[in-house]
Amino acid sequence: MITPALLAEFSTFLGKENVFTDPADRVTYSYDAAVLAPVIPALVLRPTSGEALGKAVRLCNENRIPLTVRGAGTNLSGGTIPKENGAVLLTNGLNRILEINEADMFAVVQPGVITAGLAAAVEKKGLFYPPDPGSQSVSTLGGNVAENAGGLRGLKYGVTRDYVMGIQFFDVNGELIKTGSKTVKCATGYNLAGLLVGSEGTLGVFNEITLKLIPPPAHRKAMMAVFDDINKASETVAAIIANRIIPATLEFLDSFTIRAVEDYSHAGLPVNAAAMLLIEVDGHPAQVEEDAHKVETLCRTLGASSIRVAQDDAERDRVWSARRSALSALAKLKPTVILEDATVPRSKIPDMVRAIQEISSEYGLPIGTFGHAGDGNLHPTILTDRRNRQEWVRVEKAIEAIFDRALALGGTLSGEHGTGIAKSCYLEKETSPATIIYSKRIKSALDPHNILNPGKIIG
Questions:
Q1: Residue 102 belongs to a domain with what CATH number?
Q2: Distance from the CA of 243 to the CA of which of 175, 188, 192, 217 falls in 20 to 30 A?
Q3: Cα–Cα distance between 378 and 385 in angstroms, integer?
Q4: Spatial contact of 270 and 242, defined as CB atoms under 8 Å apart
Q5: What per-residue confidence (pLDDT) applies to 146?
Q6: Domain that holds residue 197
Q7: Is the dihedral of CA 292, 297, 303, 309 positive or negative?
Q8: Is residue 355 in some structural domain?
Q9: How many domains does one find in the chain?
């Protein structure tokens, strides 16, 4: 129970200005980007130092206050929807880049640092931080780590977990735990950092994160391949990978998405196309030219009606910016937008694209499909109106059908959006009852009173 005495104690070390109790303030933190019912927390806390962060966690645990950590709230699985009687802990007061080490190529950040902010800062130093979720201009690195965020460059460069070298985090008692290292190799103790990545705030609260940086690619070439048949486009994705070519990005957009994005961005996309691929290869100049030639040849052989190579960075950036606006563009078309990220082995992309078309037809729902096809990660996006109860029943059935088809093809429920609330009820379909029990035992041991983001992932 949150009493006046407890509020006074929070205010003592956080500052009264960083303890929010007004309903108008609290409602702001009642939802995230998932289409789920909002829940207004009882309290919002904003620490501005690691010491205050640890004290806040400890005090919540001692008073059995459910605690949900929130960065920018861009996650798409309900991971930052709080408990009604709980507290939301904001990380936007912990937003400093603590170190960029050029010699050893790593950065140390607080959890509230904006992803694009770090990318820009290291670029000025001649370095590269590859993970680039679509929300990178507003999402935080703490949130990226908590959700194991991916992005357009995941095909070649991997996802957030591939860049986490170490984490300092507070356990439920407010004790500072250190795991990982600033060295290239570290085999000391349990791999607690690996456990915390993707844990969605259920096992600990991040204080500092050490991230690997790499040299930037020396050269790159971007192109747009246009198709008059969606199946030819999806088959080309599989063929590029089968030919041992790993582009930096290999993005797929169907006709519905192309038209929506062009209406939104006016980037000059081919609105009459059945589908298109956006492809970028990077690396050593000679290798880039060789790979780009191979990709162009494959696209033409497999049915591309046209291929446009970006002539300069401005043209490239305009098209990639348009691709990143896909969700915003689709969101303008209907009151409710459901963005999924069912992911399959890359060779199964053609099968999954056909499955989504069949599901769209079967349930009478418009579904725009786009995504990181090169790594098997598609984003079927259902456009609907949740107020239409009959249609919403079909939407729920369509979502389950998408998951079932992805799993049947050897895929996964989520490539990058996480489990949260939205997918926890499907988790056993992909794993096993014993897996859920094992996970619950870990959660119970580390958080015996279940105050750290309760209800997420394993319920």
A1: 3.30.465.10
A2: 217
A3: 22
A4: no
A5: 98
A6: 97-212
A7: positive
A8: yes
A9: 3
Q: What is residue 256's predicted lDDT score, i.e. its pLDDT?
A: 95
CB 320 within 8 A of CB 222: yes
Q: Is residue 442 in a domain?
A: no
* Spatial separation of the C-alpha atoms in residues 207 and 224, rounded to whole Å: 41
- Contact predicate 56/15, CB 8 Å: no
Q: For 332-380, what is each residue's pLDDT tens digit? A: 999 999 999 989 999 999 999 999 999 999 999 999 999 999 999 999 9
Query: Global pTM?
Result: 0.95
In a domain, 443, yes or no: no
Interacting residues of 48 by C-beta distance below 8 A, sequence separation 6+: 14, 15, 18, 93, 94
Question: Which of 48, 67, 90 is the last residue in one of the domains?
Answer: 90
Helices 255-265 + 313-324 axis angle, to 10: 110
Q: Among positive and negative, which fits the CA dihedral 169, 172, 177, 180?
A: negative
Taking a C-beta distance cutoff of 8 angstroms, is the pair 52, 13 a contact? Answer: yes
Domain end residue (candidates: 212, 245, 262): 212
